[in-house]
Design goal:
The complex is a heterodimer. Chain A is mostly helical. Chain A has 13 helices and no strands. The longest helix of chain A has 36 residues. By secondary structure, chain B is mainly α. Chain B starts with 10 loop residues before the first helix and ends with a helix. Classes of the chains: A mainly alpha, B mainly alpha. At the A-B interface, helix 1, helix 4, helix 5, helix 6 and helix 7 of A face helix 2, helix 4, helix 5, helix 6 and helix 7 of B.
Chain lengths: 263, 312
């Protein structure tokens, strides 16, 4: 059973990885070879020399890192309010967040396109980052609120009595204790943003700002479909996420659960 | 959805001064903390929703700028309901949602049970099971397109090697097979997400319940039906809601894998909206279609909520 679970989850990845080291000729042999007979790195060379995939990877990295950081900052302010403060409109606002999280992206995409165009942000990093931050906010807020609630009130009250301002308590007491929550929400926002396709495809039309998902999806060879190069690009696009998940899987799972229970 | 509390001008700066000195009410602090968040949501989510509704009531085609944007009432909606392609893509989406979400639930539950029972190498297996969820659907679509390739695809190769099939099946060339292939790819990615939510649910079930069940002479299957399933109910519901909402708006995976074809066999409703909007540049019609999708999505969410709410 365990072997089956592993094969189901990992075999497509391994197949893609093997494909990325095959020569053009070996690609179309049938029966198929699994381990490449004459492994070559030519596909990886092509990724960086013949195609702007390197640029796409860099764009993805810039957009994703900036979106994640900005989203975490804004979401932790909001999550602190939801977790700790009593104010009018708290419940309706939480329900509103939930409804926003349920709106299909395809509905927002046309107005978003017009809006971003009117703001002069088409084909810019910020034109992608602003929507990414927005659509990641609900899930980030749900996760962080759940984490903030677990932090004992007493620590904060002690600091407040000692004359610490609310803002200082937030930075000195809450933020360090909520670090696992921030990492969790950060990973989930990072994965979402790195993998996003519809917004990136609609709001970019030049290679300068295009992200890797769009680059690979729109890539067509001149004569045949260059599966070796595509596989190499897919492998490269997947590595950052894989590393992140292997390092932080415990936290991701906790965050998925916290976010899911709320959402 | 208005920002909380502070409304009059001037109140903000006074609140800011008191905040600097630490004297501030909870409501005022909440308003300040929520302000950036709601600024983003209002500009990039709430305004676009209302804009989509407005657009759906107007004629707006980018390739016919001379017509302007006249108000056409519900004509876009009438056209949508009279369009056989609309109904076709809604049917594709509902079948796709039904098939993928139930397959994901069964497989996800299976994966969760496997990981939950592990003692050794648990972290590794759990990470491996999580990986398919982290692959961008659009890249998974490309990857599976290659796996289902008729000449050199691994699926055909395995079927031939095991003797189940002779010759090469043209998976992405026939409507039924292409639809099947797309649902397999979609299930691969999302079953892993389902598995992790269910795994969290499984870990919350106390061991002594199983001990009691086995003392009562229950078989593993009986224990599963009497203990596991009822206690997993809310985890199952949560994952069903999330995955249903995801499947209803599926676009990137079919886009990459089949482009909606052959014909329009795998053209989901979201993909149909996308084509009307960005290929035929009919923004008014696309907006009307997407309003219909919101109603369908909220309808599903509401139904699930009603099923879930009374008993918890």
């Amino acid at each position: 059973m365990v072997v089956l679970a592993l094969v189901w989850s990992l075999a497509p990845y391994l197949w893609t990885l093997f494909t990325s080291f095959k020569t053009e000729r070996e690609l179309y042999q049938f029966p198929v070879t699994y381990i490449p007979k004459n492994p070559t790195i030519i596909n990886y060379v092509h990724v960086f020399t013949q195609n702007p995939f390197g640029r796409f990877l860099l764009n993805s990295a810039i957009v994703t890192v900036l979106s994640t950081v900005l989203c975490l900052f804004i979401a932790s302010l909001a999550a602190y309010a939801f977790a700790r403060l009593r104010f009018r409109g708290r419940e309706p606002l939480l329900v509103g967040l939930l409804v926003v999280a349920m709106i299909p992206l395809i509905t927002l995409i046309v107005p978003l396109y017009v809006l971003v165009r009117n703001l002069g942000m088409l084909n810019t990093y910020w034109g992608l980052i602003a929507p990414y931050v927005t659509y990641s906010l609900p899930v980030a807020i749900f996760i962080l609120t759940a984490f903030f609630r677990e932090i004992p009130h007493e620590l904060e009250e002690a600091a407040l009595i000692d004359g610490c301002t609310r803002m200082n308590t937030l930075w000195r007491i809450i933020a360090p204790l909520a670090a696992p929550g921030l990492i969790t929400a950060g990973i989930i926002v990072f994965v979402y943003t790195w993998n996003e396709f519809l917004i990136a495809m609609t709001l970019t039309s030049t290679a300068d700002v295009r992200t890797i998902t769009v680059g690979i999806a729109l890539y067509r060879g001149e004569f045949t479909f260059p599966w070796g190069v595509i596989s190499a690009a897919v492998a490269l696009a997947t590595i950052p996420i894989m590393t992140l998940i292997l390092l932080g899987q415990r936290l991701v799972i906790r965050g998925l659960t916290a976010g899911a229970v709320k959402g | 959805m208005a920002a909380p509390t502070i409304a009059q001008p001037g109140a903000g700066s006074r609140a800011l001064r008191r905040w600097m000195t630490g004297q501030i009410t909870q409501g005022e602090l909440a308003a300040i903390l929520l302000l950036p968040c709601f600024a983003f949501l209002v500009v990039f989510a709430i305004y676009p929703v209302f804009n989509a509704i407005w657009t759906s009531l107007h004629h707006l085609r980018l390739d016919q700028p001379h017509l302007g944007t006249p108000f056409v009432g519900l004509r876009n909606f009438a056209r949508a309901f009279g369009d056989e392609y609309t109904w076709h893509s809604i049917r594709v989406t509902l079948v796709y949602t039904g098939v993928t979400v139930s397959a994901q639930l069964v497989l996800g539950l299976g994966l969760a049970l496997v990981v939950n029972r592990l003692v050794r190498a648990r972290g590794f297996v759990r990470a491996a099971v999580l990986l398919p969820w982290t692959m961008a659907p659009v890249l998974a679509g490309q990857m599976w397109r290659w796996l289902f390739n008729d000449q050199a695809g691994v699926v055909n190769d395995l079927l031939n090697r095991t003797g189940l099939v002779q010759g090469q099946i043209i998976w992405l060339g026939s409507p039924v097979l292409a639809f099947f292939a797309v649902t397999v790819a979609a299930t691969w990615g999302a079953a892993s997400y389902m598995a992790l939510i269910l795994l969290a649910g499984l870990q919350g079930i106390p061991d002594d319940l199983y001990e009691a069940a086995s003392l009562d002479g229950a078989s593993p299957l009986q224990a599963f039906l009497a203990v596991t399933l009822p206690l997993l109910r809310s985890a199952i519901m949560v994952s069903l809601v999330l995955r249903t909402l995801g499947a209803l708006q599926a676009l990137d995976l079919p886009f990459a894998m089949t482009g909606g074809g052959p014909g329009n066999a795998t053209e989901t409703f979201a993909l149909f909206i996308y084509k009307n909007t960005f290929q035929f540049l009919d923004f008014g019609y696309g907006a009307a279609l997407s309003v219909i999708l919101v109603v369908i999505a909220l309808g599903f969410a509401g139904t699930y909520y009603r099923v879930l709410a009374p008993r918890d």
